[in-house]
Amino acid sequence: MRWSAAALLVIALVGCSGGGDEPAAAPIIPVTMPAFPDPGTTALEPGKAQALQNVLAKIVAFPDSPAGSRGATAAVVTDRWTWSGAAGKDIRGTALRPDTSMPVASITKTFIAAEVMLLAKAGKVDLDKPISTYVQHKLTANGATVRQHLSMTSGVLDFEGIDFAHLDTAIAAAPGRHWRLGEVLSFHSSKVGPPNSPFSYSNPSYELLGMLIEKVTAQPLATVLRRDLATPAGLKHAAFQDGEKPQAPAVQDDNESCGEPDGYLPCRAFASSIAAAGGLAADAPTVARWGYQLYGGRVLPAGLAGEMIKGDGEYGLGTMLFTLQFGLDTAYGHGGDMPDHSSMMVVIPAKKVSVALLVADGERHLDGAIVELTTALRPLLG
Predict the structure, then answer these.
(1) Helix 284-295 and helix 108-121: axis angle, to 10°?
(2) Does residue 4 sit in helix, strand or coil?
(3) If residue 280 lies in a helix (H) or strand (E), which one and from where to where?
C-alpha cells in the first residue's frame, strides 16, 4: 500500500452523495484550477507511439533491477489523443495487455479523498470537525479532524511491520473471507500522537475515512465510489474490491498468504482488508483517464480539486505533489505498492496530460520510468 517517492500533495473527484444526518458543515473556500477540455478519443499514431512503447521495453529488459519489472503497462490521456501499451508478463507467465487489470493500491486514496470532498460540499461532513463526530474508534479519540486524516497529519501512524505480519497470518488462515471495512484496524499497534502532527504516511487514516463515507452515506463504500466517481468519470474497467471483482483480463498473483487465485487481487481477504486504503484494481487506461478527469476538474468541480492540492508540506488531501523531477512543470498524482505490483499516476496540468504506469512487481522504483515517459511525451504534446 505504501509508496515512497519525492514530494507529495492531493486532489479529488465528482458526484452527489446522500444519506446521514450530520451537523451542518463549514463551507469550503475553493481554489481556482483550470478545467480540462474533453479527453481526446483519437489513438496516437503508431509511429509516434513507438517512443512510449520503447520505455516499456526497457523496463522489462531488466526485470531484476530496482527500476525494472517482468511486465509493465502504461497509458496516456491528453486533450487530443490517447495511447496505451504493454510489455512482458505477470508473475505466472501470462502476457500482459494494455487493458490488463492490476491492483493499484494507494491510488485508491484519491477516490476516498474525492468522495469526502463531495460530502463536505453537500454539507454532510465538516472537514475541520474531529473525525470522531462521524466515526467512533480508539484511533479517533485524539480529536484529529477529518482534514488532518486526509492530509496524514492526524497523529495516527502507519501499521508497523509486526502488524503486517499478524495481518498476513490472519489472511492465510482464511484467504476467501470478506473483511468488514475498518476491521484491519484491530491490528494497529503504533502509539497515536496528537492532532496536527508532522506528516506521516498513514493507511489507517484512510480506512477511517472509508468508514466515515459508509456512515454518512449509509451505503457500501464500493457502491458510493461507483455512483459518485467512477460512473461520472467514465471508468468502466475499475473495481472497488471486494464490493466489485476485477474485470478480465486480470493479472494473477503468487501471494503466499492468499494461495490459489480466487478472482480478487491478490485475494478477497487481502483486498477487502485494505479496501479504503488500497483496494482498487484497474487497467492503465482507466487509471490515466481517472487522473485526467480528477485533476482536470471534470468530476469534482475545479474549486474542490484545488482545495485538495492546497498545502505547503508533502501531502495535501489524498494526492502526492510531484515537482519538476518529471521534466514537465508541477504535477499531481499518487503511487501505489502491493507485494506483486507497483503503480503510479501522474497528471501535468500545464500540458493537460495524464500518465499511468503499472508494473507486475512490488516495491519498484518507477520515478525513472515516469521521467522517461514524460520526456518521450514532450515532442508529442507540442
Answers:
(1) 30
(2) coil
(3) strand 280-282
Each residue's pLDDT expressed in tens, for the chain with a length of 382 residues: 433 322 222 222 222 223 333 333 444 444 456 689 999 999 999 999 999 999 999 999 999 999 999 999 999 999 999 999 999 999 999 999 999 999 999 999 999 999 999 999 999 999 999 999 999 999 999 999 999 999 999 999 999 999 999 999 999 999 999 999 999 999 999 999 999 999 999 999 999 999 999 999 999 999 999 999 999 999 989 999 999 999 999 998 888 899 999 999 999 999 999 999 999 999 999 999 999 999 899 998 878 888 888 766 678 899 988 865 566 568 889 999 998 999 999 999 889 999 999 999 999 989 999 999 999 999 999 7
| Distances 227 to 126, 168, 231, 244, 258 between C-alpha atoms, Å | 22, 32, 6, 13, 30
Residue with cell 510489455: 87
Please count the other Cβ atoms lying within 10 Å of the Cβ belonging to residue 64: 8
The grid coordinates of residue 7 equal 514530494
Prior bond of 249 cis (ω within 30°): yes
Could you give the angle at which helices 46-61 and 367-381 cross, rounded to 10 degrees?
170
221-259 exposure pattern, b = at least 16 Cβ within 10 A, e = fewer:
bbebbbbbbbebbebebbbbbbbbbbbeebbbbebebbe
How far is the C-alpha of 104 from the C-alpha of 102, rounded, in Å?
A: 6
Amino acid (one-letter) located at 325: Q
Q: 365 — phi, psi (to 5°)?
A: -90, 105
DSSP secondary structure of 303-331: HHHHHHT--SSSB-SS-EEE-GGGSSS-E
CB 204 within 8 A of CB 158: yes
pTM of the model: 0.91
Q: Which distant-in-sequence residues (6+ apart) come within 8 Å of 370 by Cβ?
A: 326, 344, 346, 355, 357
- Cis-peptide, bond into residue 339, ω within 30° of zero: no
State how far the Cα of 325 lies from the Cα of 303, in Å rounded to an integer: 26
* Residues composing the chain: 382
Q: Supply the DSSP symbol for 322.
A: E
Q: Distance between CA 238 and CA 253 in Å, rounded?
A: 18
